[in-house]
Amino acid sequence: HNSLCAVGGTINEDDHVFGLSAARKYGGIYVPANQSVIHSYAREQLAGCGKMILGSDSHTRYGALGTMAVGEGGPELCKQLLKNTWDVPYPKVVLVYLTGAPKRGVGPHDAAIALVKATFERGFVNNCVLEFAGPGVAGLPIDFRNGIDVMTTETTCLSSIWETDEETRGFYEAHGRGEEYRELRPGDFAWYDKYIELDLSQIEPMIALPFHPSNAWTIREFLDDAGDILAEVEVDARRRFPKADVRLTDKIRDGGVWADQGVIAGCAGGLFDNIAEAADILRGGSCGDGRFTLDVYPTSVPVSLELTKIGAAADLLRSGAVIKPSFCGPCFGAGDVPAHNGLSLRHTTRNFPNREGSKPGEGQFAAVCLMDARSIAATARCGGRIVPATEADYETARRPYHFDREVYRKRVYDGFGHPHPEEELILGPNITDWPKMRPLAEDLLVELAAVLRDEVTTTDELIPSGETSSYRSNPLRLAEHTLSRREPAYVGRAKAAAELEAERLAGEVPEKLRALLERAGARAEDTQFGSCVFAMRPGDGSAREQAASCQKVLGGLANICFAFATKRYRSNCINWGILPFTLDEGTAFPWEAGDCIFVPGIREAIRTGREDIPAKVLQADGGEADLLLHVRGLTAEEREILLDGCLMNYYAGRAD
Q: Residue 451: how many CB atoms within 10 A of its CB?
């Protein structure tokens, strides 16, 4: 994510130098920028049948390789680094039973988008483990399996695991790690909580329209009804981004729907088989000399090298495509940002609002549709006129993949298990410490700094991706971007609340806070004051802990919602000392930014595990109302973390 996000100066490379110095000091592995997307490196070098991997990115998914992998926020990984356990309630398990075989022109993204469409909206597999089995698995190449597997994140499941076979063995042997293979398959005793059957032979090329991978149709359905479908997207976009002039229906002309950009990239799109077949489709053809561009990012240098050896890279370059280095950027808004009102087709993982890097608050708007690399290549051959790959005339044959391990041996620093404690960390001026965070007080008073009534609020909206990643080592600078593309007034409101709290802590209670405390019948010395975010269902998407930590840095003390979209975002809130309040479904919440909520006895409630917590709303106009909040399902450790104010305080207080 941090390979190419710089907004000026040395800060990106400073982070890279810092990362290498940490790997040397503590005994770790450092993969330099553009050598590999981290998920590709993990597949190539770290996965193993029967193993588990905990990663700090939501697309930590290596189930097709027999590895149960979970994406969590950074604090959960810190527990591991400190040799503590990662704890989770035993999840439900869902059988995804694969039958049939995909037709020519159908790729892994088509199957994945179909799966996301079928499961996401109902929350059918939320926080479950998906177990892929059935006769359809055997006919899928390993890249096809990996391409589906990484997209299971978009269903909001917890993790995934696949039965393994000779195809899996071949992957490990090709990467010089044959000893990592084990046969894994359901036993006769296997029992599942839910069941999904996916007939691969019935999958058609798919397109996911803004603003979610589940907003999907077959490409043919979309083309047959493009006017109405794009008009609906325009209405949604204008509701979200009133400052932007959105004109997607202009893409319909000359008997087709025309895109401006194609991108094949990242942990989902940049796989060897995807790019090789895209090259087959484009061989001898042209992307044209119009507005349409095609950019291809192989997922690692070894993949790029093999594509060069077999001539696929040359075929793509001859067609007018551009091959770029391994990088997550186009997937999260730090590369290939299209022009205003541009329509981008991407074989990447997400098409959330602003994920492509546009800034609707400044009048900019761009739209991303997810499609498989094969249909993107077929579209590129038509100069940007969208077509499904099943309607393209081309020949393809599967090529064996040869992994050149010398690439990593010569460039990746592998110091795992060999620390150099005498070496110093190298800290650039943008790398700063965290501000002090205080324990939870007896009573809590929070001011609503943002009220978000969208059905789902993504972590990309809570803290935008893209160039903001340059500040991931600078908590205060990064926090300035919190909700900047969704609720620009939030930062100012949160800072104003934090200033009142700073005055209270200094012993001088400001008039506004004094009046609120009098209305609540509370004492200044017992009552912590800060900001709060209300959202219907926050936290879909990325595992990035900054979605929570930035709120805390700005003085945020609570989230209120009907449900958390993902387990990982709720964990992030808890680890940063943000109270994860929920409401009963159907509870009216008519209050707006500027209204306050008083929660008496919150420390005692958390300490004793009380889950139903009465609160009082103090409206800015003088009105008052009662409100019942819940904090359900906290573990003993989570209660202690909240009482201490954050995970860092929790560990600092227990250090030897």
A: 20
The sign of the dihedral angle between the CA atoms of 392, 393, 397, 402 is: negative
Q: What is the 8-class DSSP label of residue 509? A: -
Q: What is the mean pLDDT of residues 230-234?
A: 95
Contact between 486 and 538 (Cβ < 8 Å): no
Contacts of 558 by beta carbon, 8 Å cutoff, 6+ apart:
444, 446, 530, 532, 533, 578, 579, 580, 581, 597, 599
Hey, what are 73's tokens? 């926020």
Q: With beta carbons less than 8 A apart as the criterion, state whether 315 and 283 touch.
A: yes
Containing H/E element for 413?
strand 413-414
- Supply the pTM of this predicted model: 0.91
CB 119 within 8 A of CB 155: yes
Q: How far apart are CA 370 and CA 262, in angstroms?
A: 10
What's the N-to-C CA distance of the chain in angstroms? Answer: 35
pLDDT digits (tens, 9 = 90+) for 245-295: 999 999 999 999 999 999 999 999 999 999 999 999 999 999 999 999 999
pLDDT for the residue 588? 94
Element (H or E) spanning 627, and its range?
A: strand 624-630
Q: Do you find a cis peptide bond into 211, omega within 30 degrees of 0?
A: yes
Q: Would the pLDDT of 656 be above 70?
A: no
Pairing relationship of beta strands 612-618 and 596-599 according to DSSP bridges: antiparallel
| Architecture per CATH, 206-406 | 2-Layer Sandwich (3.30)
Which top CATH class is 443-652?
alpha beta
Rounded CA separation 653/579 (Å): 20
Instruction: Name the phi and psi angles at 187, rounded to 5.
Output: -85, 170
Residues 35 and 495 sit within 8 Å (Cβ to Cβ)? no
- Give the C-alpha separation, 69 to 38, whole Å: 13
Residue 389: both structure tokens together: 């790959």
Same fold, 206-406 and 443-652: no
CB 219 within 8 A of CB 205: yes
- The full set of domain ranges for the chain reads 11-202, 206-406, 443-652
C-alpha pair distances (Å), 56 with each of 26, 60, 75, 360, 480: 18, 8, 9, 28, 22
Average pLDDT rounded to a whole number, residues 131-153 = 97
Q: CB-based contacts of 235: which residues, under 8 Å, 6+ apart?
A: none
Q: Tell me which residue of 126, 653, 195 sits closest to 439, measured CA to CA.
A: 653
- Classify 298 as helix, strand or coil: coil
Amino acid at the residue 131:
E
Q: Residue 316: what are its φ and ψ, rounded to 5°?
A: -65, -45
CATH 3.30.499.10 is held by the domain 11-202 = yes
Place of tokens 């975010």: 533
Confirm if 574 and 580 have CB atoms less than 8 A apart: yes
Q: Residue 104 and residue 563: Cα distance in Å, rounded?
A: 41
The partner residues of 366 in beta bridges, in order of sequence, read 342
For 598-630, letters b (16+ CB in 10 Å) and e give: bbbbbbebbeeeeeebebbbbeeeeeeeebebe
One-letter amino acid of 388: P
Mean pLDDT, residues 186-214 taken together: 95
The H or E element that residue 301 is part of is helix 301-309
Do residues 294 and 321 lie in contact, with contact meaning Cβ atoms separated by under 8 Å? Answer: yes
| 114: nearest Cα among 197, 43, 183, 55 | 197
Amino acid at 534: F
Pairing of strands 52-55, 68-71: parallel
Q: How far, in Å, CA of 33 to CA of 327, rounded? A: 8
